Amino acid sequence: MAELRPYPFPALIRRMFAELSASGSIFDLPSRKFVLDPGGRDLSVRFHGLEAATPLGPAAGPHSQMAQNVVLAWLSGSRIIELKTVQINDTLTIPRPCIDMQTVGYNVEWSQELRLGESLVEYVKGAMLVEILAASGALKVAPGFGRVLYDMSVGYDLKGIQSDRVQEFIRGMLDATPVIEQLRAQIPDELARFRELDFQRRISNTLTLSTFHGCPPDEIESIICYLLDHVGLHCVVKLNPTLLGPEGVRSLLNERLGYRDVRVPDAAFERDTKWDQAVSFVERLGARAQRRGLGFGVKFSNTLICENHRDFFPKGEREMYLSGPPLHVIAMNLVGRFRARFGARYPISFSAGVDRQNFADAVALGLTPITVCSDFLKPGGYGRGHTYFKELDARMEAVGARDLEGFALLAYGHHETALGRVEGLDDDRRAAALASLTAGDDARARLSEAQWRAWVEQAQRLNTETYVARVTDDPRYGQARNAKPPRKVGSALVLFDCLTCDKCLPVCPNDANFRFVLPRGEVAVERLRRLPGGRWTVEASTPLTLEKKHQIGNFADFCNECGNCDVFCPEDGGPYVMKPRFFGSRGDWELFAQRDGFFLEREGATLRVYGRFSGRGYIVELDAAAQRGRDGVARYRGPEFALEIPLADPDAARGRVDAGVDAVDLTYLHIMRLVSEAVLRETDNYVVHLLDPAPASTDAGALRVTR
Ligand code: SF4
Ligand code: SF4
Fold it and tell me: Does residue 192 lie in a domain region?
């Protein structure tokens, strides 16, 4: 269903530990992809003066909306988590599908899909889950490597941001005590020791401003002034790629990179902030923040607005937003231009086409945080973060860097030139610092703090020049290398069985898709035909054959129908459309009546399964014996019948059948029994933890963590 539903906190905690114990994964991310130890290197950075263990983070977007997103991001090495943008209008209708990753990355997404209060609770839940995991001892987190910052993202205009509801959200992030106390009380009894944790009450005091495409510069400035003066937040303003101007953007995008079919409308350049306007408000806002002892920086960049020239999004969407490889080049050119103008005066947050191959370069440029969206939407999902750190480690190893500042100095070999630009050093000090750096010693100890900082900043500036020149001509960002959509094999998805490639699990930002096992074999396709005299007889047809090792299910409460799993599924039809869908509440099963799917509930010893097939609803009630095997009685209701069926002897069925109906299809009964038994047998799905809360263990001996 297109609406997201938050999941109960205690069930999330139980799922987290039960899955780790049973499968060695958390929210379907295998532990071999966890990033918990930097292998003796110091990957820490400072953001607005606050320390984070790495500069990586999910960009405000689909990877930072729900509590499990926050955990998944943290597990894969993100330590500056830019939370999904919130705004006053929290009842948006977003066109679906809304994410097109067939080539470079386009979207028609917007801000949070939850109500403002729900977003606050989700963010606090995510932060508490991370703290619980870190404190559990279930994971071997290197000392200090758990340190994580949460950055608010708020939009879109001054009036909305000043509104009571948005201000209440911000106050809640500044002091989350009431939410924490509510959630603390919900921690399951068997994990009660986590109730004693001193959870961080200030979830965030930093904010990245997201503005409308076309937001006037004086509005941007007014918002930041307000946030600095009246709320006291450290601020970053996210700028649009149109800042490069029409010639700058088009010569890069359409000519050098070859994306000739992408048209950025003239109006976008006319409406958006111009370079000179940005330069002057950055100067003013930077000075204002400094007077108040607050941080101020910029972010490159927002997505690039362009005409919708493709047929992926619903008709009527005239514009869409480009991300991925071409945006990387445009945004890096903006970084270069900004650094040339301001040097290191203002920190730069970065988001645009970051991936395994260029993450280390962004690190070498000193960009903080480095946030990701498009790449995490590709196969592997959050787990791709693991590869970023492997690559960074290899690059640091190659130049002998122990920390990120040392890496900035050595990454492109600019250390000597950079040191030459540091004032106030005699030749001996220079030589000693260089020798110390290249020998892998503590070069910092050879200089004053100011000299060290100046050296690193000069190197980052030189690195920027080198990298921007390099990336602008790198064919990997060009159209030719990014034109091929993911492979489709030409077969159509059906309810059960598929290629079982499992790509649809990690590409889902919300972990909505899951595996479950149905026994290989046949599912009877049967009809119960009424005989004269009230008896029944079973008529069998060709059975349904299940051949695959497992099946794919979809948890509807976490599926906003973004469409991303459809893009990467080799078969046609979309896993989120075709695969068994499980709703988290009966209300939603009833409300979203145009979606087929299941809902399970218990009443005493009875398991009640709601199922909808081709728009027609059925209900099966299974007594205890029927849940265990082939004995017992199933109460089976459909649009035209209500029967009690002894499972061992269906011919003896009793009940009501509407006039004119002489047969009842039993296939749906079999399917509903089969899928409900299967999902309730397992630990790695959201259905079982809602229905059958089982005590979770954090006993390290019981956990299967691959290191
Ligand atoms: S539904 Fe598609 S993506 Fe998912 S496992 Fe099956 S074939 Fe692979
Ligand atoms: S299941 Fe598919 S459509 Fe639904 S949220 Fe996940 S990726 Fe998007």
Answer: yes
Interatomic CA distance for residues 212 and 650, integer angstroms: 62
570 lines ligand 1 (CB under 6 A): yes
Nearest bound ligand to the CA of residue 512: 2
| CATH assignment at residue 452 | 3.20.20.70
In DSSP notation, 270-327 reads HHSPPHHHHHHHHHHHHHHHHHTT--EEEEE-PPEEEE--SSSSPTT--EEEE-SHHH
Atom of ligand 1 nearest to the CA of 501: 8
Instruction: List the domain range (segments joined by +) for residue 549.
Output: 513-702
Structural domains in the chain (count): 2
User: With a 6 A CB cut-off, is 565 part of the ligand 2 pocket?
Assistant: yes
230 in a domain, yes or no?
yes
* Last residue in a domain, options 482, 499, 523: 482
Q: For ligand 1, say whether the CB of 139 is within 6 Å of any of its atoms.
A: no
- Give the whole-angstrom CA distance, residue 71 versus residue 195: 18
Indicate if 449 and 518 belong to the same structural domain. Answer: no
Same domain (yes/no): 435, 526? no
3-state secondary structure (DSSP) of residue 446: helix
Whether residues 595 and 676 share a domain: the answer is yes
* Cα radius of gyration rounded to whole Å, the chain: 28
577: Cβ below 6 Å to ligand 1? no
**d(Cα 341, Cα 345) in Å, to the nearest integer?**
10
Secondary structure (3-state) at 206: strand
d(CA 556, CA 104): 27
Q: How far is the CA of 45 from the centre of ligand 1 (A)?
A: 39
Q: Which two tokens stand for residue 88?
A: 């006053």
Determine the distance separating the centroid of ligand 2 and the alpha carbon of 565, expressed in angstroms. Answer: 5
Q: Are 126 and 114 in contact (CB under 8 A)?
A: no
- Same domain, yes or no, for 477 and 517? no
Q: Could you say which ligand is closest to the alpha carbon of residue 577?
A: 2
Instruction: Reduce the secondary structure of 316-382 to three states and give it as a string.
Output: CCCEEEECCHHHHHHHHHHHHHHHHHHCCCCCEEECCCCCHHHHHHHHHCCCCCEEECHHHHCCCHH
CB 643 within 8 A of CB 657: yes
Helix 449-472 / helix 356-364 crossing angle, nearest 10 deg: 140
Same domain (yes/no): 467, 569: no
- DSSP structure class, residue 421: T
Give the ligand whose atoms come closest to the C-alpha of residue 558.
Answer: 2
Instruction: Determine the pLDDT at residue 93.
Output: 86
Q: What is the structure's pLDDT at 535?
A: 84
- Expressed in angstroms and rounded, the spacing between residue 1 Cα and the centre of ligand 1 is 19
CB of 504 closer than 6 angstroms to any ligand 1 atom? yes
Question: Do 517 and 477 share a domain, yes or no?
Answer: no
> If you write DSSP's letter for every residue of 560-585 in order, what string do you get?
----HHHHH-SSBS-HHHHS-EE-SS
- In this structure, are 478 and 615 located in the same domain? no
Cβ of 503 below 6 Å from ligand 1:
yes
Residues 135 and 257 in one domain: yes
Tell me, using a 6 A CB cutoff, whether residue 561 lines ligand 2: yes
Q: Is residue 539 part of a domain?
A: yes
- Is the CB of residue 137 less than 8 Å from the CB of residue 146? no
The answer to whether residue 388 is domain-embedded is yes
Nearest CA to ligand 2 atom 4: 559
Q: Reduced to 3 states, what is the DSSP secondary structure of residue 246?
A: helix
Integer CA distances (angstroms), 344 to 348, 404, 531, in order: 9, 16, 86
Q: Which amino acid belongs to residue 445?
A: A
pLDDT < 50: residue spans in the chain: 702, 705-707
CA gap 11, 187 in Å, rounded: 9
Say how many Å lie between the CA of residue 576 and the centre of ligand 2: 6
Q: ipTM of this model?
A: 1.00
Q: Which residues contact 594 (CB under 8 A, 6 or more apart)?
A: 615
pLDDT at 697: 78
